[in-house]
Amino acid sequence: GDSVTQMEGPVTLSEEAFLTINCTYTATGYPSLFWYVQYPGEGLQLLLKATKADDKGSNKGFEATYRKETTSFHLEKGSVQVSDSAVYFCALLSTGGFKTIFGAGTRLFVKA
Amino acid sequence: EADIYQTPRYLVIGTGKKITLECSQTMGHDKMYWYQQDPGMELHLIHYSYGVNSTEKGDLSSESTVSRIRTEHFPLTLESARPSHTSQYLCASSDFSGSKHTQYFGPGTRLTVL
């Protein structure tokens, strides 16, 4: 079945460091791919998405590129801030599917 | 900003009590979901609905039940709460249209059963 694997956390970075959170997926067809973020005490919210191969999703300085050849959707940000401290979830929606498959989440801590 | 609401935000109750967690959305979305989130953060789908009068069990077996009498309302009920039900419960909704199934989440209910 479809699945999402993302790097384990926690990830601890200093402010202004470069961030990469790896995400790979297994799916048939052409899934849509998502990154969601969960700030402390809140529900998840969509950060960015990509719906076809080579699409780049971007928002708030974060970006991720849909790579079908490597079945990956890694999240990157050039310079993190303390306010980026949160849990990040990679997710996919199968072609014609109705359920979103979430990864296990990666907690990010950013130190001032 | 998503218009999806959950009440209560926090609930502490004793074993054996019946509880209902409320979830409402004002976006007119057809699909709604309940997730259980464990302390390790992983999300587990426990119930979902395609629309009014539709309810389905999710991937994680749960003793809770849901109903969908109105489009905007998707409450979750535990007939007899137990300590093993202690968790964070997240409600979400999505539509079938061009938004490509983006899910909108409520803020969650943190349930503690003593």
Protein model, in words:
The complex is a heterodimer of chains A (112) and B (114). Chain A is 0% helix and 51% strand. By secondary structure, chain A is an all-beta fold. Chain A is globular, with a radius of gyration of 13 Å. The mean pLDDT of chain A is 94. Chain B has 114 residues and is mostly beta strands. Helices cover 0% and strands 45% of the residues of chain B. Chain B has no helices and 11 strands. In chain B, a hairpin with a 5-residue loop joins β4 (31-37) and β5. The chains are: A mainly beta (112), B mainly beta (114). At the A-B interface, β5, β6 and β10 of A face β5, β9 and β10 of B.
Please give the largest β-sheet of chain B: 7 strands, mixed
- Low-confidence segments of chain B, given as residue ranges, are none
How much helicity do the residues of chain A have? under 10%
Could you tell me the radius of gyration of chain A in angstroms? 13 Å
The amount of beta strand of chain A, in percent, is over 45%
What are its keywords?
heterodimer; A: 112 residues; mainly beta; 6-stranded mixed beta sheet; 4-stranded antiparallel beta sheet; 0% helix; B: 114 residues; 7-stranded mixed beta sheet; 11 strands; 45% strand; globular
SSE topology sketch:
The complex is a heterodimer of chains A (112) and B (114).
Chain A lengths: L2 E4 L4 E4 L4 E3 L1 E4 L5 E7 L5 E7 L5 E4 L2 E4 L9 E3 L8 E8 L6 E3 L3 E6 L1
Chain B lengths: L3 E4 L2 E4 L5 E7 L5 E7 L5 E7 L6 E2 L7 E2 L9 E3 L8 E8 L9 E2 L3 E5 L1
Parallel strand pairs in B: 2-11
Antiparallel strand pairs in B: 1-3, 3-8, 4-5, 4-9, 5-6, 7-8, 9-10, 9-11
